[in-house]
Amino acid sequence: MTAAADLLSVRGISKSFPGVRALQGIDLRLRSGEVLALLGENGAGKSTLLKILAGALQPDQGTIEVLGQPLRATSPRAAQRAGIGVIYQEFNLVPALTARENIFLGQESSRLGLLRIGDERRRAERLFERIGVRIDPEALVRGLTVAQQQVVEIAKALAFSARILVMDEPSAALSPREVQGLFGIIGELRAQGIGVIYVSHRLSEIFAIADRVMVLRDGQHVGTQPIGRLTRERVIEMMVGRSLDQEFPHRPGPIDPHPTGPPRIGPPRLVVEHLVRGQAVRDVSFEVRRGEILALTGLIGAGRTETARLIFGADRRERGTIRLDGRELTIRHPRQAIAAGICLLNEDRKSQGLVLKQSVQENFGLPNLARFSRLGVLSPRRERAALRGYIDQLRIKLADPRQRIANLSGGNQQKVVLARWLQRHAEVVIFDEPTRGIDVGAKYEIYLLMHRLADQGKAILMISSELPEVLGMADRILVMHEGRITGEIRDVAGATQEQIMDLAVA
Ligand SMILES: Nc1ncnc2c1ncn2[C@@H]1O[C@H](COP(=O)(O)OP(=O)(O)OP(=O)(O)O)[C@@H](O)[C@H]1O
Ligand SMILES: [Mg+2]
User: Fold this and answer.
1) Is residue 321 in contact with ligand 1, taking CB distance under 6 Å?
2) Which atom of ligand 1 is nearest to the CA of 201?
3) Which of 261, 278, 449, 479 is in the most buried spot, having the most CB atoms within 10 Å?
């Protein structure tokens, strides 16, 4: 061992689950002050590798060294003691405790009572200072934004003297501005010599933050390269194993008529007027036309998801009307929205009611939805065929449709949710962050599906925080801020990300 020993050195890690070889002979090195991006399609093995580093999973084979010292016991405590801090996508914070209590949870202290609290508060303040973010240590975690909760998680890892920070899709629940904040934090930590492993499906982030990029495909190490030697196209090619000419499928502009037949975008189908719910949605009106993809963007908390939930009947609106094809709808419950032909696909796997101990097939079928929907109820045989079709099209990675959905990777669970809704025929389809956590190849397939739905004359409302996606997919863009629509962009081809951001903070 020399002074220049790697911060982290992983050799020959393999891990299998029934029916899958999740990791095969993986090597990885991380240096002090470096950001290593870990990329790969859904199910490639990224989270499995991180869980092994965190001591939460036992590898079948392989070794891990921190600063030249082998990590013998693989347990969460041993990993923590060795200086590996892990931030999972679903945080491990206790909402009813304060930031300070969460940071020091599980740490022994020789001091008692007030002395201990005062001590911890000062340490928490110092940690937040080190990260460069102001948070009141005595604030309840429940009341913090997702970005602030993430900062608390990072502070918690640093309180355990982490020198290696491992982050699994840390930006997935953050708005563009908050992602910038996170990058600032990572910059600070890297200057302090901390090494970071960063997982994300957003390539623009990788080019903004990573020093090196490591790509996994089907559990195998495809390659690791300094970022300077890579292009977006090359990274995609490494991930999906073939080149993808474009990230967004082409579609004629909204004013170009089809070579034959009527213009692509027709009369208004969904018309909402004066929607109100508390401070979240304050007098929102807009329309979505036949064949149109309308993007609704803005910062997290701007009221976009809340607006979608009112249209879908998931929350009760205080005021406002919803019309479809000129007919006013009574929507007080999602079942009424579904019956009227409106469906909502959102990104939150938990609220989608995935039944984790049931199989993929059972989750896809979702009988309790079919019960109150006259739309798209399939026979079991046709349902299986439909599922097979989606497994193919969206490249859902699984060993068997009868396996438990809990054992699918995060992105693949997401794809099943999407497939479940896509098979139900609706006239208005609301996508809430449709591609969050989804790999680049499957994103393209989802975009194609959205085009196909629009071409069938449906009205598509797409909520997205990913500005490239908004610019690449929308016929028209609405921007929300603090419960109101603050801007509309009709000339999407001429629009820029900066223009949208300006409207979003208006
Ligand atoms: N507990 C488990 N039991 C069975 N199979 C599992 C289990 N955990 C993971 N797998 C499988 O291992 C493979 C790798 O999964 P992993 O979660 O590491 O993927 P990932 O790269 O993180 O994907 P994503 O981008 O979707 O999060 C997948 O095929 C997954 O289904
Ligand atoms: Mg994962």
Assistant:
1) no
2) 25
3) 479
The predicted structure's pLDDT at residue 200: 92
Give a three-class secondary structure readout of 393-418: HCCCCCCCCCCEHHHCCHHHHHHHHH
Sheet with 84-87, strands from edge to edge, namely 84-87, 164-168, 195-199, 35-39, 212-217, 220-226
Question: Whole-model pTM?
Answer: 0.81
Q: Say whether 181 sits in a helix, a strand or coil.
A: helix
- Would you say 10 and 53 are in contact if contact means Cβ atoms under 8 Å apart? yes
> Which CATH architecture fits 32-41+73-198?
3-Layer(aba) Sandwich (3.40)
pLDDT tens readout for residues 80-94: 899 999 988 777 889
Residues in the chain: 506
Tokens describing residue 39 = 């990329």
As given in the structure block, the two tokens for residue 260 are 């034959």
352 lines ligand 1 (CB under 6 A): no
Which residues 6+ apart lie within 8 Å of 180 measured at CB?
none
∠ CA 279-283-289, nearest 5°, is 130
Low-confidence ranges of the chain (pLDDT < 50): 1-3, 257, 367-368, 370-375
| Closest listed residue to residue 375, CA positions, set 437, 309, 420 | 420
- 191: its two tokens: 């200057």
- For residue 441, the model assigns a pLDDT of 84
Q: Can you give the pLDDT at residue 120?
A: 92
Domain 268-352+425-504 has CATH 3.30.43.10: no
Which ligand number lies closest to the CA of residue 398?
1
pLDDT number for residue 380: 74
DSSP string, 221-286: EEEEEEGGG--HHHHHHHHHSS--S-SS-----TTSBPSSSSBSS-SEEEEEEEEEETTTEEEEEE
Ligand 1 pocket, residue 407 CB under 6 Å: yes
For 315, the 3-state DSSP assignment is coil
Q: Is the CB of 372 under 6 A from ligand 1?
A: no
Q: What is the pLDDT of residue 111?
A: 66
